[in-house]
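INFO  loader      accepted 1 record
INFO  loader      residues=197
INFO  predictor   begin
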Amino acid sequence: MSHYYSENQDVPHSRKEVSFRFLDIHINLITDSGVFSKDHLDPGSELLLQHISQQFNKQTFCDAGCGYGAIGITVKKIFPECSVTMFDINQRAVETAIENCKSNNVQCDVIHSDGFDKINDSFDMIAINPPIRAGKSVIYRLFEEIEKHTNKEGILLVVIRKQHGAQSAKSKLTEIFGNCEMIDRSMGYWILKSIKH
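INFO  predictor   done
INFO  writer      dumping tokens
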């Protein structure tokens, strides 16, 4: 079965516009079939953005599994001086994210990559809304790669539904980073935070 966390998308295009306001910043994005949450900004990503905006005060940010770019573009709008890198395995998502960067007048590095395969940099903060349908083995591999690409004292923020394995994700992140804290719980979503020491 084809899903959004895959290399090739053979579903027909079905483009639409998604608009939202965050911290008085208006964001207008194009989405397409075969990408995550194509009809609206999903509540988990909105909750994740709230915590990113409260905790990010550094220089480099990575939107891991960026989809059509909602998180990375919003972060760049809020913190225009920071450097934003976004990547996704889904070629259609990457193309859409590049288009959305241009239409929102932000400069971000948008990379087509399976996990961190094509990412050489490390970051002060990495945020991820993990691809649940891809399975735990893929998600846990991403967590391990994220740790390697997080700067010292850098932060990982994860949003995950409780029923989609939030507790086991918390345990895995504790194993990888040596720490993981649930910093918010809302609408069935958990926000998990790990720090690279």
